[in-house]
Amino acid sequence: MYRIGQSTDIHQLVENRKLILGGVEIPHDKGLLGHSDADVLTHAIMDALLSSASLRDIGYHFSDKDQQYKDISSMVLLERVMEMLKEKGLKPLNVSAVVMAEKPKMSKYVPEITKSLAKALNLNESVVGITLTTLEGIGIVGREEGICVYATATLVKI
Question: Taking the C-alpha atoms of 141, 143, 145 and 151 in order, what is their torsion angle to the nearest 10 degrees?
Answer without folding.
Answer: 0
